[in-house]
Amino acid sequence: MAQAQVKIAIVGAGETGCGWAALAVAAGWPVSLYDHESRALSAAEVAVAQRARALGQLGHADDHAVERGIAALVPGRSLLMACADADWIIEAIPEDLVAKQKLFEALEGAAPNARAVTSSASTFSATDITARCRRPDRCLVAHPQSPPELIPLVEILPAPTMDRGLLELVKGWLRALGRIPVTVLKSVQGHVADRIAAAIWREAIALVLDRVMDVDDLDRAVSLGPGLSLAAAGPHLGNRLQVGSRNASAFMQQKLQDAEALWTEIASWPRLEPEQRQRLLNAIEHAYADSIDEITEARNRRLAAMLRALEDSREA
Q1: Beta strands at 139-144 and 88-91: parallel, antiparallel or unpaired
Q2: Positive or negative, the Cα torsion across 53, 300, 153, 97?
Q3: Range(s) of the domain holding residue 220
């Protein structure tokens, strides 16, 4: 089967499932979507079409492919109906280990011919999720960022028994959808991207609660400062690029020394007290609640523009 015609079944019609579906639909791929809640499934059909068309408007999809994909989108009225003919099944249900284990077990009967079954899990490993499976060899975690149709990173955690050829096939499918897969070599709580995001957010929370900066200015400081640097090069490469042709060892030693001085000052608490949580939520709502739809649209435009710039720079 040609890569451009991989049949995808997505189980779970929430934010992540709709994002996966919009991505595949926008590429013109045949997609079936299933959710055990019929109301969620009906709402998802509309949301997927809107998000797929938005990719076209942002310059990240061909309009003809988008409309072809929307026309081919099929709501599955049962797990069997949605998954029976799929080559690739994407699980995108809520983060509940028992529910995921039961679903992967059920998919062994509902989709025996699927080439690969991937989980969007943000906290569990493939070994955790396939504990009830007789065929864990076709299963892996493929964890996207949000929104999945815009941010290209996908963290890959294969099951230990997974065939290397199948792993490369799934990576090829992801690349065909414009995703950039990275492999997590050792399972850790929250994988990698979410751990880094959580560390940044903890310090950002502390700076707001300590009244160092208001929420909206703090978000600008991160997104227009270290956020741009991290997007362009990542933390290790970004620091190394500051060295240029100078003595790298001496510079990096000084950089580490400066960071160690900050590490003694930055937030290290493991949890917030209820009063702190409420203060934070109030501050965020005060900053953004009245214009969340407009801000979402603007965020998506900025993401699309940054991705186009990054893609252009790689091609140059």
Answers
A1: unpaired
A2: negative
A3: 193-315
Structure tokens at 28: 């013109």
Tell whether 170 and 235 lie within a shared domain: no
Residue pair 124/99 in contact (Cβ under 8 Å)? The answer is no
pLDDT string in tens for the chain (316-residue length): 444 579 999 999 999 999 999 999 999 999 999 999 999 999 999 999 999 999 999 999 999 999 999 999 999 999 999 999 999 999 999 999 999 999 999 999 999 999 999 999 999 999 999 999 998 999 999 999 999 999 999 999 998 888 889 999 999 999 999 999 999 999 999 999 999 999 999 999 999 999 999 999 999 999 999 999 998 889 999 888 888 777 788 888 888 999 999 999 999 999 999 999 999 999 999 999 888 889 999 999 999 998 888 877 765 5
Do residue 39 and residue 121 come from a single domain? yes
**Any domain includes 188:** no
Strand ranges across the sheet with 31-34: 74-75, 31-34, 8-11, 88-91, 116-119, 139-144, 153-158, 180-183
Residues 156 and 48 grouped into a single domain: yes
Domain count, the chain: 2
Residue 287 counted as domain residue: yes
What CATH number corresponds to the domain at position 226? Answer: 1.10.1040.10
Q: Assess whether 202 and 175 both reside in one domain.
A: no
How far is it, in rounded angstroms, from Cα 280 to Cα 262? 23
Task: In the chain, count H helices and then E strands.
Answer: 14, 8
